Each structure stands twice: as structure tokens, then as C-alpha cells.
Amino acid sequence: MSSGNILEVKDLYLYYKTFKGIVQAVDGISFKIPKGTAMGLVGESGCGKSSTANAIMRLLPGNTYRYEGSIKLDGMELMDLTDDEFRSRIRWSEIAMIFQGAMNSLNPVLKVGFQVAEPLIVHLGMPKEEALERARDMFEKVGLAPAFLDRYPHELSGGMRQRVVIAMAMVMNPKLLILDEPTSALDVSIQAQIMNLLKQLKKEYNLSMIFITHDIALASDISDYLAVMYAGQIVEYGPIEEVLLNPQHPYSQKLLASIPRLRVDKEPEFLPGAPPGLINPPKGCRFANRCPSRMDICDKEDPEIIWLNKDHFVKCHLYKGG
Ligand code: SF4
Fold first, then answer.
1. What is the distance between the alpha carbons of residues 113 and 121, in angstroms, rounded to a whole number?
2. Residues 65, 123: Cα–Cα separation, whole Å
């Protein structure tokens, strides 16, 4: 039965096998996204953010070693679907994704209008003229004049190409849009325009989103919830105001303290050390070697998820029994 959540992820694992050992890229993560809301997924490079997106999209590399858990879309368990069912019923039509650097991966020899129309032709068998008409409508929604349908990618600016990519992702009218660092390659002023466009689409389509970034300030611009990821695990999740204004996990606290503030007479803090490798990570808390609140138990036991209220959890021994 469907709940008020568009996505519920529970105990999701994605491990890769490499010649150096098993990489625990996504290690038992859980979160939920209420319908029509956006969740920012933040953390340092290599913490497993993109692997989380790939796990939800079931885009698994050949060296996948472990892929299990529960992913429910609008109440439907996606892990029960075969790969063919997932491809034909879910990927792009129900869950779409904008990959990091996608605007630079548009096909250089095809007109962008056709590239937006193509998923409709391929996945829905829509006649080309009708699909191009739908692409024209989508161009309007993302702020591109119809004349741009006949342009090639190299004839467009970076901001325009990113609008094309957003149109491609939206043309099948997905329920959930995953965006992986969608503005990182853009100038700051263009970045602001794209963020405004995304906020507008979210409102107009009641669209749910996962917004992946290493930039918490950017995530806070669009997100209703925030998930903080560290070394393959989500260490804190909750409503954005709660996590930003009152972070509970020592890593979230350090991450937020490292952001420069304009109106606060305080130097940004530096977080010393580095995350552990994801091959044979420590058996206790993965943040222990950098944590100012480290206790004996932190080196021995992987902390459990502790719910502070119905929407906010933290994965830290400090909150055990509290
Ligand atoms: Fe720090 Fe221990 Fe909490 Fe890990 S479990 S964040 S080491 S206090």
C-alpha cells in the first residue's frame, strides 16, 4: 500500500569487487522522501552519494558484489522487479536521473530537440512528430525557445545545455528526479538560474527529488530534508531546518562548522583527517578517527540508527539509551 512517501529506502547495500578487495560503497542506508519534497544528499567526495543514486536507478557495474535491501517507490517494492521490468516500467519513466556532467555528454551529432524526444519514441513508441511536439512543450517549461529544438549541443551555452538535460529527464513525467551535482560545472549566476528552474519544476509538477551535492548551502536552497553521508553510510537524516540549525551527529556538526558565514564573526572550522577507505573500513564507527566525542564503544561497535523524532535520525553512540 502506498504511504505519503514517494521513496522509502531501507537497509540498502551496494558493494563492488575490485582487485584490492570489496568496496563497501553503500553500506546499509535507510531514508524516506515524502511526496513532492526534495532530499539533499550531502557528504565529501567518495562517500557513496553517486553509488546511492546508481543503486536506486539499478545502474550496476559488472563488478557489483552485493546489491540488496528494500527500495519502495510509491509503495511498490522495486527489488522484486526483474531487470527487464525495471528497465521498461521504472527507469526514466518513473525515476529519472541527471548525471554529473550530463550536459557535456549530449550526442554532438543529433539536434537537441530530437534528443529530448528520443525517450518518448524509444520507451513509449510515440510517433516522431508527436514526440517532437512534446519536446517543444518541455523546452518551454525549461525556458528554452522552440527555435533551439533544431540546434546541436555545440551551438548552446552551458546553461542552455543543462536546461536540455533537465528537459530530457522530465519529458517522461517521472515521479522522482535524481540530480547528481547538477550545477557544479556552471558559473555561479547560471547556477542560480538553474536552481530557480528546478524549484519551479518541483512546485509545478509536485516533483520529488534527490539532490546530490557536496555543497550544503546549495542543497539547502531546494531541499526539504537532508541526509548526511559519510564513508558509505547515512549518519544523519532529518528535516532541513533541524539538521542545519541543530545538527546532532558530530560529523554533521563539523561539516556545517566548516562552511564560511558572511555575518558571523567566526572562522570556518577545519575538519582534520580523512575518511576511512571503504575496503575493510573500521568495524566500529567510521567517523571515530576524526570525532571529538569518541568513546571506547565507538571503536568496537557500529552505531545503530537512533530516531530522535519520527522524521530525524542519527547514527551515533552518543544518543544510545537517550
Ligand atoms: Fe563520534 Fe562515537 Fe558518535 Fe562515532 S559513534 S560519531 S565516534 S561519538
1. 12
2. 29
CA of 292 to the centre of ligand 1 (A): 8
Residues 210-262: pLDDT tens digits?
A: 999 989 989 999 999 999 999 999 999 999 999 999 999 999 999 998 776 66
CA distance 183 to 159: 9
Q: What is the pLDDT of residue 1?
A: 45
pTM of the model: 0.94
Asked if 94 contacts 88 with a C-beta cutoff of 8 angstroms, the reply is no
Please list the alpha-helical segments (H only) found in 29-99: 49-57, 83-89
Domain boundaries, the chain: 3-93+173-312, 101-172
pLDDT of residue 262: 61
> What is the distance in A from the centroid of ligand 1 to the CA of 8?
26
CATH topology for 3-93+173-312 is Rossmann fold (3.40.50)
